[in-house]
Amino acid sequence: MTRILSIVLFLVSYVAVGCSPRPTQSNYDECIADGMTKLKWANEMNEMFPFCDHFVIHYGIGKGVEKEWQSEAYFGGRFVITMSVQIVLNDHLNGITKVEGSPKFYLREIISIVPDGGRFHAKIGKQDVLQEQEWLEMRNVGYHKFLSEKWGASKEVDYFEELAKSIRRQRGSN
Fold first, then answer.
1. Is the distance from CB of 39 to CB of 102 less than 8 angstroms?
2. 35 vs 2, 52, 70, CA distance in Å?
3. How is residue 159 annotated by DSSP?
4. Where are the beta strands (DSSP E) in the chain?
5. Quick one: 137 exposed, middle or buried, by C-beta within 10 A (0-12, 13-18, 19+)?
6. Is pLDDT at 4 greater than 60 in this prediction?
7. What is the pLDDT of residues 63-119, one digit of tens each?
8. Is 161 exposed, middle or buried (CB count within 10 Å of its CB: 0-12, 13-18, 19+)?
9. Taking a C-beta distance cutoff of 8 angstroms, is the pair 78, 160 a contact?
10. Alpha-carbon distance values, 139 to 49, 53, 64, 130 (Å)
C-alpha cells in the first residue's frame, strides 16, 4: 500500500510540475517590456541614467517564491543605484499583474577598483537606502547636487567604466 501511495504521489507531483508554465526567453523579454510600461520608477531611471539594466530576480523559479524587479545603473564615475520592488507575475510569466509595496533605492559609492585579469574587485564606501520621496528629490535636483549635499564632493574612480561595462556584458546588456 505504501508503495502504491508513493507512486501515486510521484505521478501527481510530476503532472503538477509538468502543467506549470515553463519560462522562455521570449516570456522574460515580454515581462521586462511589460514592466517598463507599468513601473514608472524604471522609466525614471532610464531618463536619468544613460545605461540602466532591468531584470527580474527569481524569474522562473516557481509559484510561492517572491519575484523582485530591479533596475540598476552605474553613474557619476563611482556610484551604483539599484531600484527594487516586489512584483507578482501573471500565469504566463510574460507580464506583471501587481506591484507589492513601494520601491527602495539602494545607493552605493565605490571608492576603489582593482583590476584582476579581466575581473574587478570593487571596494564599497558609503551606502544608503533611499525611500521613494528621496528618489524624487534626487531626480528633481539631479544626482550631482543631491549626492554632493548628501556625501560631499567626490571624484571618479579608476576602472569604473570598465567595471560597469563588464557587469553589463555579463548580463547581456550593451
1. no
2. 47, 14, 10
3. T
4. 52-57, 67-75, 79-89, 96-116, 119-130
5. middle
6. no
7. 778 999 999 999 999 999 999 999 999 999 999 999 999 999 999 999 999 999 889
8. middle
9. yes
10. 10, 18, 34, 12
